[in-house]
From TrEMBL:
InterPro entries: Cellulose_deg_GH3 (IPR050288), Fn3-like (IPR026891), GH (IPR017853), Glyco_hydro_3_C (IPR002772), Glyco_hydro_3_C_sf (IPR036881), Glyco_hydro_3_N (IPR001764), Glyco_hydro_3_N_sf (IPR036962), Ig-like_fold (IPR013783). It comes from Streptomyces shaanxiensis. SMART domains: Fn3_like. Keywords: Hydrolase. This is Glycoside hydrolase family 3 N-terminal domain-containing protein.
């Protein structure tokens, strides 16, 4: 028996795929370019926008005779036992392979934004909490565990991470982002990609690009970002995740930018992504995004025209449907309306990836390796706990109310205190899917803040009153809440968001808000608690920052946790008790007032407070802010008042010794910011270009050195070039964007230097022994 060249693993993948493509019919090639969502319903509420009117009916048995590109969310559509789900997926894959001439299975993909979105799988903290932890190695470890669980279940591709940079915190999907800074987003995102890819799972960067810059913070609204904002804020995290993380897939965004939908933009998906950045993987559509070119954007008159526009732009795979890349595309090619070469180009990319995944090998088998799948192992929970603990931000603690006394009388009040879902984001399985299956148990253990606090402080007298609902306007519960607080030594007001989809929550996809007031009547409840005179500690469990200036100087302490996952209750309780020394830092600014948005810290001079407007956008708590139960001293800084001259292609080391001067172990996050006093275009007053988390025991010190290269000062000039300009720069070592400890002045000399795609993206940091 002679093995066909495309089956021969000894041959280069490109040669194998070329041989296979030469044997395939048009229908067999197009079949590799779409996915199907077997368990998705076409009526009622769905888990994707317009799911009800974009789902296409088909005959499964007939469909798979031509092959199939992707299988959509076998685990993430309905609750299924993981082992049974893996077996069902294997049977489906075997059936797909047996039905076609070439025996090629589908790529199975799942959501994995904050863990494998499957029943009984670990629910990790959301990406905004990853940003708060400032700990790329731990995020990489988490992603490696997520990838291992996906692979064990038979899944090949994960639809994460989200690399959108927050531009307006009213946007519902802020919880899915890593923060408002492109450098933080890029470094944390690249770490996640490395972890997922190291487990053999294809990471999918989303949403490419500009999605978070929507006008008015509305989901899918038009984007009106300028070319420099797009180049210097939106794109760098994607570039870093591709170059440093090795992501093998990119998801085209829903949005349009300046009138051009991303899904029909060859300048974005081909010229930039492939020709400039050298990307060789697959580009997939966001769910129904190709059909939206016809129905929402109206740049195509028919599904075939939408298919043509998307293929020409560079989208290889339509997800999760065959509405455009199925029969409409085949008919358009046969009618001479779409060049078949576009199908060949996309099919080649898809098959090359399947070849990399081993799906073209003769010894491929879909059967799971293990009969039992534990998707919430103790090792998983340990990582979830560590990440949750590191992500909790102590916003303020002016009088040392925290940590709580172990035998205190504590009134716990608020709608988020006793609800397990308070820990979870929109893309966790319980929030995303189980709301449609109220009869099904949670599947994982999620201690609430109330439960965890009682475990953490067994000698304390803990009482509870809900006070109000998350969005319920009825203040009837205030009286009991105030009574419980009045009887206590301290009151914990546990407030925040409920994650949901398309308006069914206060945070999550399609849950955008008009301003940054606490949802419902929670602000009034907090006022009532503060009015008792009992010290009130505010504990926020949210998916975005909320305006807290109304309570400035009135709270005993404030703690912020961004949907910290299944171990979030113990993590928050550990911070309140003092078992955990808080070390999280804000990945987004906390505003003072609920209006005056959008605003992030990346502002040029006219975006800051000044005499030109009566509105002061200065945040209450700045990007990078976070307090500790210990103290740190920063000494022996390398740098002086006089500028140091370096060339526009030079480098400079900035060092400082950090010493723990308190009586307990803790972590300091040393942050490096760039200030460019004069440039040819306006620049952010400061922007993050480096950071290092440093763990120190009492009395211990470490030397932190940042190796700055002038590439990190580059920006997009008026001609659209990325350049380094001569002139003065300031490197600011800081504890937040607003808390500068030391400044080094540099004088860049020489000509303006234009940078290419190989520029340095990262400021390397080194931690050594005592300085």
């Amino acid at each position: 028996m002679t093995t066909a060249p495309w089956r021969d693993p000894a041959l280069p993948a490109a040669a194998r795929v070329a041989d296979l493509l030469s044997r395939m019919t048009l229908r067999e090639k197009t079949a590799q370019l779409y996915g199907v969502w077997v368990g998705a319903a076409s009526d009622g509420d769905g888990v994707a926008p317009h799911q009800h009117d974009m789902t296409v009916d088909y005959d499964w048995a007939e469909l798979i005779t031509h092959g199939l590109g992707q299988l959509t969310r076998s685990f993430g559509t309905a609750p299924v036992d993981p082992a049974l789900g893996a077996q069902a997926l294997a049977r489906a894959q075997r059936r797909i392979a047996d039905a076609g001439r070439f025996g090629i299975p589908a790529v199975a993909h799942e959501e994995c934004l904050a863990g494998f979105t499957a029943w009984q799988a670990t629910a990790y903290p959301v990406p905004l909490a990853w940003g708060a932890a400032f700990d790329p190695p731990l995020v990489e470890e988490m992603a490696r565990r997520i990838g291992g669980d996906l692979r064990a279940a038979g899944v090949h591709q994960g639809l994460a991470p989200v690399l959108d940079v927050v531009r307006d915190p009213r946007w519902g999907r802020v919880e899915e982002t890593i923060g408002e800074d492109p450098y933080l987003t890029g470094t944390i995102g690249a770490a996640y990609v490395r972890g997922l890819e190291s487990a053999g799972v294809v990471a999918t960067l989303k949403h490419f690009a500009g999605y978070a810059s929507s006008a008015g913070a509305r989901n899918l609204a038009p984007v009106r970002a300028g070319v420099r904002e797009f180049a210097d804020v939106t794109l760098p995290p994607f570039e870093m995740a591709l170059r440093e993380g090795g992501a093998r897939s990119v998801m085209a965004a829903y949005n349009e930018t300046d009138g051009v939908p991303a899904s029909a933009d060859p300048a974005l998906l081909t010229e930039l992504l492939r020709e400039q950045w050298g990307f060789t993987g697959t580009v997939v559509a966001d769910y129904f995004g190709i059909g939206f070119l016809q129905t929402l954007h109206r740049v195509a008159g028919t599904p075939a025209q939408a298919a043509h526009a998307a293929l020409a732009a560079g989208i290889d795979v339509e997800l999760p449907t065959l509405k455009c890349y199925g029969e409409p595309l085949v008919e358009a090619i046969r009618a001479g309306e779409v060049p078949e070469e576009l199908v060949d180009r996309a099919a080649r990319r898809v098959l090359l990836q399947k070849c990399e995944l081993g799906l073209l090998d003769e010894d491929w088998t879909p059967e799971p390796r293990a009969a039992h799948l534990d998707l919430d192992s103790p090792a998983n929970r340990s990582v979830a706990r560590r990440l949750a603990e590191k992500s909790v931000v102590l916003l303020d603690n002016p009088d040392g109310t925290l940590p709580l006394s172990p035998d205190a009388r504590i009134a716990v009040v608020g709608p988020r205190a006793a609800d397990a879902l308070a820990m979870l984001g929109c893309y966790s399985f319980p929030s995303h899917v189980l709301t449609h299956h109220p009869e099904v148990p949670m599947g994982i253990e999620i201690p609430t803040v109330l439960e965890a606090l009682r475990t953490e402080l067994p000698d304390a007298k803990v009482t509870f009153a809900e006070g109000c609902g998350v969005l319920d306007p009825d203040p009837a519960g205030f009286e009991e809440a105030v009574a419980r607080a009045s009887e206590a030594d301290v009151c914990l007001a546990v407030l925040g968001d409920r994650a949901g989809l398309f308006g069914r929550g206060t945070s999550g996809e399609g849950c955008d808000v008009t301003d940054l007031r606490l949802p419902g009547v929670q602000a009034d409840l907090l006022d009532a608690l503060v009015a008792t005179g009992v010290p009130v500690v505010l504990v926020l469990l949210t998916g975005r920052p909320y305006a807290l200036g109304r309570w400035q100087g009135r709270l005993a302490a404030a703690v912020q946790a961004f949907f910290p996952g299944e171990e979030g209750g113990p993590a928050v309780a550990g911070v309140l008790s003092g078992r955990v020394n808080p070390s999280g830092r804000l990945p987004v600014s906390v505003p003072r007032v609920p209006g005056g948005q959008p605003w992030t810290y990346l502002q040029p001079p006219l975006g800051l407070a000044g005499e030109v407007s009566n509105l002061d956008p200065t945040p209450l708590y700045a990007f990078g802010h976070g307090r500790s139960y210990t103290t740190f001293e920063w000494t022996d800084f390398t740098g002086g008042e006089a500028p140091t001259e370096i060339s526009t292609d030079g480098s400079y080391d900035v060092s400082v010794t950090v010493r723990n001067t308190g009586d307990r172990a803790g972590a300091e996050v040393v942050q490096l910011y760039l200030h460019d006093p004069v440039a040819s275009v306006t620049r952010p007053d400061v922007r993050l270009i480096g950071y290092q988390r440093v763990e120190l025991t009492p009395g211990e010190s470490s030397r932190v050195t940042f190796r700055f290269h002038t590439d990190l000062s580059s920006f997009t000039d008026r001609a659209g070039r990325r350049v380094v300009e001569p002139g003065v720069l300031e490197l600011r070592l800081a504890a937040s964007s607003a808390d500068v400890r030391h400044t080094a002045r540099l004088e860049l000399t020489g000509p303006v230097r234009e940078l290419g795609p190989e520029r340095r993206l990262r400021c390397e940091a080194e931690v050594s022994g005592p300085g």
